[in-house]
Amino acid sequence: MGSISWLWEQHRFLMYQCFLFPFAFLFYFLSKQGYLSLTHRYLFVSVGGCVLAVVTMGIYSLLLFTSTLVFILLVLSVDPSCVHIWAFGIQMLWQTFWHLLIQYREYYLHEPVSIRLFLAVSSLMLLTQRITSVSMDLQEKRIMLTCNTSSRRQTCVMILPLISYTLSFTTLLGGPLCSYSRFVLLMEGIGLSSPPSPLAVVFLKLIQVLLLQWARWCLIYFLKRNMYDPVNSGVLYGILWTWCLALVFRIQYYSHWRISEGLNNAVGFGFWEYSLADSSELSGLSDGDFWTTESSSRMSEYARQWNFTTALWLRRLVYIRCKHFPLFMCFGFSLWWHGLHVGHFVGFFTWAATVKADYRIHKHLWPEFSLTWRKIYIFLGWINTQMIVTCIAIAVEFRNMSGLRLLWGTYVGLFPFANIILLFILLKLERRC
């Protein structure tokens, strides 16, 4: 029982996801065999999401139910061209209220915050993605959700897929963002042209999660056995220790994304018949691969690969809609969406500035290098990217000044600082020219 308790405390989120796999496979089997009609499929995933929310979040599941109810009322009562403004404003205010309440209880009242509340707010952030994705689709007329509201049956037919999309048990606790139109096509297509059996794919992704968690355990063991001492430890050791600590945080994200992808695959999602990727892998829904992301030698490339579907959502929601300073506005909104902690301010604005610096540095240096120097440039760029990502991860995960003090004490914070200084130098040179 001791090992089970340890697993539960250390990997609560992953365990919740693992418990959902039997229900996901059951949904796939019943849909494939024709036992579930389309209406029953929508009911299965939405009721499953409601039950999951109550079991994992308790009373705080009302945060999600309130958001969903308000959004449904907006869809039914507001003109489609105006839904996005209302949905975005109300949802972000509701989410921000709970983020600030957590900070107030943590920093001013010094009270422990319930893990259920943290989980509810995390799910609320994902719900914001889905709600704003639908509202943008309505605004851009990519989907039509109009009906004769005097007909109760027709209204139910319209809102049931919407409720299923927002509260689906496959994406409630995590997972790649799927558009509403894609979700509807997937739900309709499972019974008509079933995707390939997901058993092998899900098993492979669960093995990958186990390997990632094993690597994370090894890093934690190393960090605990070789604690960093600001007085006696050397500069290189401090940099290596901090890099390993940041890698521990990032591996946890990769594990969550992988198991969420596997859960979506288990119900038959992620299979695009016309995808250029190998369709047998059900690889249409993914938030990023460890090797692909971590091998990035440029900050701009890393930013595009990290949490891939969220990056696309931020690009659509903020970047392409802002006429002035779109990059900084995009990362500024990401800061707001994540919770407005002190570490978030430093982390996300450092990220924005170093991505901007990467564009300028690459533009000036890459054409000047020979083939040999380009290889050296790529290697040094990878080290630079890893150090900057280390700073961002430490600042964001610690959330308070302790993370910033660690970065300053180990000199890792000099890497993004040097990039930002070089950015200003290049901008001044451009103005002179």
From TrEMBL:
Record keyword Acyltransferase present: yes
Superkingdom as given in the UniProt entry: Eukaryota
Primary location recorded for the protein, binned into one broad class: endoplasmic reticulum
Any GO BP: lipid modification
Signal peptide extent: none
Keyword terms, alphabetized: Acyltransferase, Endoplasmic reticulum, Membrane, Transferase, Transmembrane, Transmembrane helix
Descriptive protein name: Ghrelin O-acyltransferase
GO cellular component terms given for this protein: endoplasmic reticulum membrane
Intracellular or extracellular location(s): Endoplasmic reticulum membrane
Source taxonomy: Eukaryota, Metazoa, Chordata, Craniata, Vertebrata
Membrane-crossing residue ranges in chain numbering: 12-30, 42-63, 70-94, 155-177, 197-223, 235-253, 335-355, 376-396, 408-427
A Pfam family this chain is assigned to: MBOAT
GO MF terms held by the record: serine O-acyltransferase activity
Topology in the lipid bilayer: Multi-pass membrane protein
PANTHER family documented for this protein: GHRELIN O-ACYLTRANSFERASE (PTHR13906:SF3), PORCUPINE (PTHR13906)
